Amino acid sequence: MSWRLVLLCLLALCWAVPAQADDNRPLSVQIEALGEGVYAARWKIPTNVAARHVPQVAADGCEATGHARNWSDPLGHWRDERWQCAASPAEIAITYPAANPALATIVRFNPEGEPVRTVVAPAERERISLAGAEASATDWQGFLVLGLEHIWIGFDHLLFVAGLIFIAGTWQRVLVTITGFTVAHSITLALSALDIVRLPIAAIEAVIALSIVFLAVEIVKGPRDTLTWRRPVVVAAAFGLLHGFGFAAVLREIGLPDEGFVAALLAFNVGIEIGQVLFAAVVLGALQLLHRFGPAAAQGSAPRFAGYAVGTLASFWMIERLAGAL
């Protein structure tokens, strides 16, 4: 038992710093043609990035008119401009006041008389092409990378997965448990992205934090004859339905492309699964190393320490998110 407890303690300490958890969403840019060469441009950075980091977005051949404003709300920090353009923008340039705070970019471009285009770009790209051919060619790749990045910066989702691995224990039970979690959140991710089911994201994120508190309590109490310890896949699937709505928040804010909708949705979900599998492999590999080379003596206080550390952090997230929803 000690090797699992030591690992969980380390995970709790590692996640104690980024207390904003799953809010590191991309820079979202929306550009819409209003007619006669006028375009409405609006962009947003997530709330866990300071408002002073809102970048400047510009397009070649376009000039900003006098209409511009900045504001903040629970969704992020915004800037809105009107552009007068000599021709349809072919490329935009993104300039941050300092360094890019590790944000990918999603651009939704609605040109006049043409289908809406959605382009996803990694954080290091400062110039983004809006050309139809290039945009359609990079959609699925961009959404794949976005899904992969999203799960790796989604500290609350990963901490929940780590708790499931700890409770499941063996490779076989971990495989079944993670599969249940994957199937469940894939269902609600698709339902939310298709706008079939819509729930308030603030409440969902608070419940996601509550799911981590639930696992922390189980870890503190230790193995016993309960559904969580007997059938962790049931708990994984139940909470996985809620985590899927959390994954869908990024896609719902900006929208999926009209062309290649299914491919983009599938790519985003596959990216999440790749990141999740890599994380589970790392955790399980570390568990095996600790089991083989770690100290043999079990530390009786370690389970409670780990459970209280994880539970306290998740409780902070839950209270913070509930406060933000009010």
UniProtKB/TrEMBL annotation:
**Origin species:** Aurantiacibacter gilvus
Q: Does the keyword Membrane apply?
A: yes
What protein does this entry describe?
A: HupE/UreJ family protein
Q: Does the keyword Transmembrane apply?
A: yes
Where would one find coiled-coil regions in this protein?
Answer: none
* TM spans (from-to): 150-167, 174-194, 200-220, 232-251, 263-290, 302-319
Keywords, A to Z, come to: Membrane, Signal, Transmembrane, Transmembrane helix
Signal peptide residues are 1-21
